[in-house]
Write a structure and sequence with these properties.
binds flavin-adenine dinucleotide
Length: 327
């Protein structure tokens, strides 16, 4: 049996490869950069597995499809930390907290003592917050590497260029590079920073609400934090702008002044692949199955999209989120 060929070894391609390999199918991956790295959007992600929080700004399917992600990542990578999400707002932005609570579920309110009990380093800084107990996070770079190692252990081949002969079916998971075929795909720029701040310890992602510049900070352990992320309608990748650095750092400083002393280890930006409604899509055109449009939910939605892709390849069914089937 010819292996399924997957183009793209970002989170989408690796998740589909893992899903198919786990179900016993032969697969091979093709990517000019077959090792996870800064060439892929997935490298820059925060790694929040936050289906309830994301519902605040996303359509209902994002929550529904994202609910299984935590167990999937745990099962396949063992890198998940199930410590929930803390959502906070400064005193002047309490209206934002109330709005966030109305537009999401799966949370409980916290007072100052509750916040201090969860995150002692934030004691005395915030009077109210929301705790999303059933959410989790992971380190995207470690998780991508774990998926790749898991596939390698199953003797899955990684190629830099498509080998001959052509496969019977190929899965295109090239992220934004697939715009040559998926003309309604666009980029949504996200900028991030990595800080070292040994004076602050956090156990879970913290979202600081703001009417214009909402921030999240994801602890990576050992005093390292990922700070993100801007949302700009642009497909520009690469270097971050001064304005974005200023805004992200100001928000981190508002969360805890010790971030003012942090070392900036890394800055980066990439363009999230998104369709007009910001929901993922599967498209079948002849022998090619396209899987794309993960937008800001790459790690949250890749497991569900991978399962739908595998169901389609196994049974021929047209799953939800497959909006095109053509010969
Ligand atoms: C700052 C930032 C923060 C984010 N935070 C989160 C978060 O907290 N949680 C979350 O779930 N999501 C988050 N995201 C979104 C997430 O990163 C994206 O949705 C996801 O990375 C998209 O994955 P992908 O596999 O489709 O694309 P990519 O990761 O870009 O992978 C595409 C791959 O295709 C390869 N490729 C290109 N051309 C070819 C070719 N011709 N042949 C073969 N391969 C090719 C590339 O080399 C690349 O490896 C964030 C994104 C950004 C930018």
């Amino acid at each position: 049996m010819k292996p399924f060929r997957i183009l793209g070894a970002g989170v989408m391609g690796l998740a589909i490869a893992t899903e198919l390999a786990t179900r016993g199918h032969p697969v091979e991956l093709v990517d000019p950069e077959p090792t996870p790295g800064p060439h892929g959007c997935s490298w820059w992600a925060g790694g929040m597995l936050a289906p309830y929080c994301e519902r605040e700004s996303a359509e209902e399917p994002v929550e529904r499809l994202g609910l299984g992600a935590i167990d999937w990542w745990d099962r396949h990578t063992g890198t998940v930390r199930r410590n929930g999400t803390l959502v906070l707002a400064l005193a002047r932005d309490q209206g934002e907290l109330a709005r966030f609570a109305r537009r999401s579920r799966g949370h409980r309110p916290l007072d100052a003592a509750g916040i201090a009990a969860l995150e002692p380093d934030l004691a005395g800084r915030f009077s109210a917050g929301l705790f999303f107990e059933d959410e989790a996070h992971l380190s995207p770079r470690a998780a991508l590497t774990a998926l790749r190692d898991g596939l390698r252990a199953r003797d899955v081949a990684f190629h830099r260029a498509p080998p001959s002969p052509a496969p019977a079916v190929q899965i295109d998971a090239r992220g934004l590079a697939a715009r040559d075929a998926l003309t309604d795909l666009r980029g949504v720029r996200g900028e991030m920073l990595v800080l070292r701040c040994p004076d602050v310890t956090l156990s879970r992602p913290v979202r600081l609400l703001h009417p214009r510049i909402p921030l999240y900070i994801v602890p990576r352990g050992d005093g390292i934090f990922m700070l993100g992320a801007t949302m700009i309608e642009s497909d520009r990748r690469g270097i971050v702008t001064a304005r974005s650095v200023l805004e992200l750092l100001s928000a981190a400083y508002a969360l805890h002044p010790a971030f003012g002393e942090a070392e900036v280890l890394e800055t980066g930006a990439d363009a999230r692949p998104a369709f007009p409604d910001n929901l993922p899509r599967l498209r079948r055109r002849g022998a090619t199955l396209y899987a794309n449009g993960l937008y800001r939910h790459g790690f949250l939605l890749a497991p569900a999209v991978a399962a739908m892709a595998a169901d389609h390849l196994e049974t021929g069914i047209t799953p939800a989120f497959m909006d095109e089937v053509s010969a």
